[in-house]
Amino acid sequence: MRFQTTAYRISRFRNKAPFLFQSSQASHSLCQLQPELKKRCSFGIAFDIDGVVLRGRVPIGGSPQALRRLYGHSGALKVPFLFLTNGGGIPESRRASELSELLGVNILPSQVLQGHSPFKNLLKRFENELIIATGKGEPALVMSEYGFKKVLSLDEYASYFENIDPVSQYKRWTTGQVSNRNSHSPPGYNISSERVKGAFVVSDPVDWGRDIQVLCDILRSRGLPGQANGQQPPLYFAADDLEYQAAFPSERLGMGAFRIALESVFNRIHHSPLEYVSYGKPNPFVFRNAEAILSQFLPSYVDDNGDAGSHSFRTLYMIGDNPMVDVEGAKQAGHPWFSILTRTGVFKGVDNHAEFPANLVVDTVEEAVEYILTRELIS
């Protein structure tokens, strides 16, 4: 989906490898196959969204028809699949509902892995700490649904500091935002005197100027704007895409571009360089996590010794439009990942990508699914 600036940042916050998260909603088997087909359920598919199945809110590449082929006549899933996207900004449950409506198939929340989905693994560290979430959509709601107790959107947080955004009076859209903030009950703690313990860029920021200003205030003052410089609180990005394919014909700047801008400014005004952790593709752990989620969709078995287990995947197909994100991520993840590159998004080349070649290049996602089902002998 998106064009990556760097694979992922190693920093003092990343002293441990990111661990896998699992969805309780996938605890039942999605692979409700007929008995004669169960033995064939040894493969799965991960679809990117923007530039592969959708452009904006419009299905592309024959995606509705392609996805319908993964279900049986009864509506049960024939092939385990999920959506693996660096995008986000809304809860997985709502994204699943939107995808179901746009694509005409029943998508469960457990089939949607967004860039910010791994943030739920940080709950133990920040559950009762004040954190800030920014980005398009409803970033604070996303973090609240993950279980974080004291989370504010950057919009709401900034409203408690008079003049923190010196040009807010020139922004026509702020009037409605202030009205919406005032309709909410104030939190039961003093925001202007409590330090922010973590900042989360959940999705693509909307007001770059304001967000860079306020994040710099938070990050260089040990979490309390207006105070003296000190140790930086942890900063997390859901992804690090420089560009991605949206509804406009040419690529749009993504979260990675915002990160570059924030880092450039912060490093000029603070004595220590910006520290951060980036999630999202092509980080290999994202693909390992997708494999773990997909494995929950498979039927379990009992071996000759009476031990329970699950079928392993012979092949996992990553269908994406971005060589540096989707293809490179699948390659770094290694076996059993097989990359398929479509020409409906970031990649539009005639031949395979020279630097990040996919295992297969096709025009559309419908062609990709046709190839997979033929290769796997599924009608």
Automatic annotation (TrEMBL):
**Stored Pfam families:** Hydrolase_6 (PF13344), Hydrolase_like (PF13242)
Q: Which InterPro entries match?
A: CDP-alcohol_PTase-I (IPR050324), HAD-like_sf (IPR036412), HAD-SF_hydro_IIA (IPR006357), HAD-SF_hydro_IIA_CECR5 (IPR006353), HAD_sf (IPR023214)
One GO cellular component term of this record is:
mitochondrion
GO process annotations (BP): glycerophospholipid biosynthetic process
- The domain of life for this entry's organism is Eukaryota
Q: What is this protein called?
A: Uncharacterized protein
What organism does the record attribute this protein to?
Citrus clementina (Clementine)
